[in-house]
Predict the 3D structure of the following.
Amino acid sequence: MRPIIRALGGVATALALAAGTTSVASADTEPEALGAGRIDWRPCPELAEVECGTLNLPIDWANPRGERFDLAVARRKATDATKRIGVMVINPGGPGGSGVNFALGADGYFSPEVRQRFDIIGFDPRGVARSQPVRCSVEVLRAQPSAYPTDQQGFDALAAYNRELAADCREHSGPIHDHADTGAVVKDIDALRKALGERRINYYGLSYGTLIGQQYAEEFGRHVRAMVIDSNMDHSLGTWRFNETEAATAEDSFREFVRWCDRTESCALHGQDVAEVWDDLLARADRGEITDPFDPSRKVTADDIIGVAFGAFYGPDWQQLADFLVELGAGAKASAFAAAEETTRNPFPAVFCQDWAIRVKDHRQFSALVDRARQLAPHMRGSALGHTAMAGCVGLPERVNNPQHRLKIKDAPKILMLNALHDPATGYEWAVNAHRQSRDTTVLLTYEGWGHGVYDRSDCTRGATDDYLINLKTPRPGARCAAVEPAPQSVASPDAAPRPVGPTPAIPGWLG
């Protein structure tokens, strides 16, 4: 199947930022013996001021003498060695986001005060980017059947395809395909901590990176100095609740877009019934009346339009979304459309389907899940991300490496959780529930605004996070930061952020 259209940079703000630095010995340094598996640091090819290297690790931690892979790492030294506190390991989410890239651009994300005091360490998780990436055949990726089967035969075809894709990716990637789960990544981080010679680390994880942080704190909490988990996953959810919460938060973001248009004169749909315009556009797409403005031979589907909108909610990039909907409805070459890039790398299912035992049994159950999602999200027709993730696991083995469980953090310092009230991907309910499970060890700071990713939303969110990272001062329980109205950003801006990594070229993942 030809990849569907996607929104360009500004339509979905995400992180492809990164940083790297050389580590200076700190008071928390572990004995030299723990530094086994040192990293040979050299200037990064992309940016000489950042250092890059690799750490050789077991693919299967249960068989440490078996096959190995090289974990790609980057570091950016603290800008003031006299004020250095230690290292801060960072992860941008995904699953499939590059921590090395995050490190390379960290000077544009983290505040000068944070960069003064921490060596920022990014890594590409196993199976991602430079760390022996999961690869799959383009031909197989193109052959995907509908993720919305209409009968048992279509459901069986989807299940067979998912098994074929997994076998293909395994053939092209080797054993790392079956060991890409977050539980293994957590062990990689602790090996990285030892290689850096640090007794304790600081951690900043965004979106799917919060799952990594949560599970690192569960297993290695004694090795944490400070941890910020921004836009949180809730790993306790089963299939039904996962489906419902993803749908509800996607629809909430749509409603917030409508409210913004109603109160904002610069919205291209201001003064109109935005929900009615939206529903009419989707209905026209369902009837095959809208063509791809860049490829008139191809019809635009309602799922295409929903995918663009879903990506726009990450920013949120409401101005561009409104312009896009008007242009598309008029048959103009909407600036948010462009051909998706082909790729043979597809780490999303390999990670997600090993972290979540979400397995739909048959078409009857699948149809009930779809109906429930559409009941909760009538305009967004459920969650593009949640549905694609769920459909991508159909037919795969029920036993997974890292199944869901309630969060149990016992031996860790206070952890700072951040979440927006109106996040399209990691809904606020997820953060509240994860906080409830870990109330003795976490403090939740609520951003009362929109979009995916909280740290850099305002002086309030950044200031509270920096104060915690630097001084270990947590906000008071129940603390909140006021919403900041997003400023319009041109899609064509050279500073526009790249697309998030997601399960398809059209749908961003749990990545800020």
Q: What stands out?
A: Residues 1-35, 490-499 have pLDDT under 50 and may be disordered. The first helix runs from residue 99 to 104. The radius of gyration is 22 Å.
